[in-house]
Structure formats: C-alpha cells, structure tokens
Amino acid sequence: MGRPRSESARKAILEATFTLLVERGYDALALEAVARVAGVGKSTIYRWWQTKAELAVEAFFEATADELKMPQTNDARADFHAQIGALATLLAGTRGRAFAAMLGGALNDPALARVIGARWLDPRQRWGRERMARAAAEGQLKPGVEPRAALAVLYGPLYTPLLFGGEVPAAEAVQAYLNIACNGIFTD
Length: 188
Hints:
By secondary structure, the protein is an all-alpha fold. Helix content is 72%, strand content 0%. The chain starts with 6 loop residues before the first helix and ends with a helix.
C-alpha cells in the first residue's frame, strides 16, 4: 500500500517544479533538481507522478488555480472579456513563461502534449464552445457568426505570441483587441 502522501512534501515538490520550470524551461527541468530543491528523495516524486510531464502540468495548475476561473453570467461578452483578461494577466508573468516552456516542450514530448491538452486545452475549448452555444441560444451572437471562428479570433492574440516566443500583449492592448473582436461577434 505504501506510505501516505505528505501534503508538505507535495507542496514543496510542486513549488520547486514551478520555480525550476520558469527558470530553466521544460526541456532542462530535471527531477533530480526538483528533489534537491524540494528536500525530498527522487523516489518520492516518482511515487506520485509517473512522468515529468504530469508533474510539470500539475505544478503549473497548482500555481494558477485561483486565476483560471471560467465565468458564467448572463452576458457572454462580459464573460469572454473577464476570462480572456484574467488569462492575459496570468500569461504575461512568470506563469506565462512556465506555460510557454511547457508548450515548447510539448513539441518534442507527446506525453506532455497529451497532458496539456487534457488539463488546459480541452476544458477551455469545452467552456468556450458551451458559452458560445449559450450565447447563440440567447440571441447574443450576431447573425452569421461561426462560433469556432469567433473563439479563434478571441484567443488568438494570447496564444500566438506564446507559440512564437513573443510577449503576451499588455492588458490595455488585450482589452482594445477584445472590444474590436466582441463588436463583430456579439450583439449589443
């Protein structure tokens, strides 16, 4: 059955992983270094996480749990503004550097790509599709708006810079972009 998890060890491992991910990137993230910084044995890490990919993604989500909310009000435009604005703030700092490091690592690590897809991309795409469907049902989408295209327009300015090593736009630029995009997508 093994020993039960120590919550303090788990937190130390996740904090060390996130710090090293930001400092070194995903490719240079070594579990030996995580163990040393966290003050645990490497076997403790392997007991709880099967792969470096699982550990890195869990560390990222542990560090960003409070910022990753997906709003559900009666105003689709306001929901997307709030969600994308919060996401832009999150991605502009150290958390964005950690996420960019993981995206870069996912190019050569199929396990990491799968974990990022399951933990990051799938839930956000699901929320976006459901929120767009609800907006359409409530008459909040302009006629002829294709929801998948609208989602690409809304999120493109955040993800494109991360994929190409650029900076996430400043909050004011994100809001200006969202105003233009939302005017073409949502009814008043």
